[in-house]
Amino acid sequence: MFIDIARVILILLEVLVLFNLLIVVHELGHFLAARWRGLYIEKFGVWFGKPLWKKTINGVQYSLGSLPFGGFVALPQLAPMDIIEGKADVDRAKLAPISALDKIIVAVAGPLFSLLLALSFAGVVWVVGHPVGESDSTTVIGYVLPDSPAEKAGLQPGDKILEVDGKPVRRFLGMNDSVSWDVVRSEGDKVAVKFQRNGNVQTVWVEPYKAETRGWRRKSVRQLLIYPAETPIIDKVEPKTPAAAAGLRPRDIILGFDQTPIYNPVALLEYISKHPKDQLVLHVERGGASFDVPVRPTLLPTDGEMKPRIGIQWDTTGKISIGHPNPIEQIYNSVTSTLKTIGAVASPKSDVKLQHLSGPIGIGNLLYRLFGSEYGWRLALWFSVILNVNLAIINMVPLPVLDGGHVMLAMIEGVRRKPLNIRLLEIINTGCAMLIIGYMLYITFFDVQDLPFIKNTLDKLEVQPTPKAVQQP
Fold first, then answer.
1. Sign of the CA dihedral 183, 189, 195, 198?
2. Which residue, 68, 251, 358, 375, is the most exposed by fewest CB within 10 angstroms?
3. CA dist 336 to 116, 139, 187, 393, Å?
4. What is the architecture of the domain spanning 134-228?
């Protein structure tokens, strides 16, 4: 118990360190650029809330806040940001004016530093590598849910998908050139799926499935209800079960049963549930050798009830390889995935809405799961490349309060050849800050629902929950 608590605390600390590093480095870019361009720097703070420590050095107040989330740099000459940074300690009217170019340089420095940090992380990932699951390297269908749109259209396990909605695909999951994303981004009543079966190329039209959700849940997006091909590897053999009696071992690979190949572990579960008393012959691979193992299901305790099983637990990660993508490839993929997300949100016909994005709680939850996995820091660093690029691009959106808004206002000031009215800037920035804070609260409402202990409860109340594939035979 103590070890479990210690591990949770360690993972939470790792999440906080990485999350804060991303924000502080971004703010450090603004700080150093302001120093270079001679701006008045009022404060540089790490974390928010009541200061635990503060000290003024060379006219700049440095502080460590009590709320461990990010940081800020207060630059009164750049824009009035009292609602976020607190009321300025100086009269802005008495500060020397700065040029529009200086404002642009300081504003752009934050996103630039985020990109540099992304490039640094990408370099580390290039050297140490990051885990690549089978769903990231195949477009072969592993399992088709019964009565799903895909089954009705004629798709089968073993089919290799070549194109979705007219776009070539090279992997099952993810953002770039993937089956799942191209289904989500499709906008027609049906989606064209081009696939290869036994050397023959065919195209079928599939009507996407969308689960019904309650008003307080994130709306479901389009799915075909198919799963990628994943090697069925045994992780654990439960004692005193048919599997243990038959001599099955952890790391055995189940190639199929009764002369039928399987491409995903769920296929075996489905067969056993439909034939609870029938003996079946498993085709097993162990250490390069193949052999058959007869086994008969029996009723075993599962989730508080007795169900027909043989008593094995799958390795849900499947076969993992270590990829070493170069930094440019990583940055390019991160940029394109971010732009695709923005494009999806902006499209009125898209299923992807603002509610599907993630805020600090959602990002922290994902980082927690990444750190808690077998590959921990490798996955977290790989994801941080995407996160830093995302932070840089989103901050360059021309919305007041964001860095892109500062650039836009500075350009307007440069065209007018005189500063904008300070009172007008205060109204604009305060209004936009309130909108952003409101949006963050809106996103947090959905992010909290994805926390495991809350999600499990809400899923039981769902009107039409999406079928799941994580079960054990």
1. positive
2. 251
3. 17, 20, 20, 11
4. Roll (2.30)
pLDDT in tens, 255-267: 999 999 999 999 9
Question: What is the maximal distance between C-alpha atoms in the chain?
Answer: 87
Q: How many CB atoms within 10 Å of residue 228?
A: 25
Q: Where are the domains of the chain?
A: 2-129+380-456, 134-228, 234-314
Letter string b/e over residues 114-146, b meaning 16 or more CB atoms within 10 A of that residue's CB: bbebbbbbbebbbeebbbbbbbbebbbbbbbbe
pLDDT in tens, 188-207: 899 999 999 999 999 999 99
pLDDT at position 84 is: 54
Please determine whether the domains at 134-228 and 234-314 fall in the same fold group of CATH: yes
Cα distances (Å, whole numbers) of residue 466 to 282, 314, 355, 463: 29, 21, 18, 10
Q: List Cα–Cα distances, 70 to 18, 34, 44, in angstroms.
A: 10, 19, 11
* Average pLDDT estimate for 456-461: 72
pTM here is: 0.86
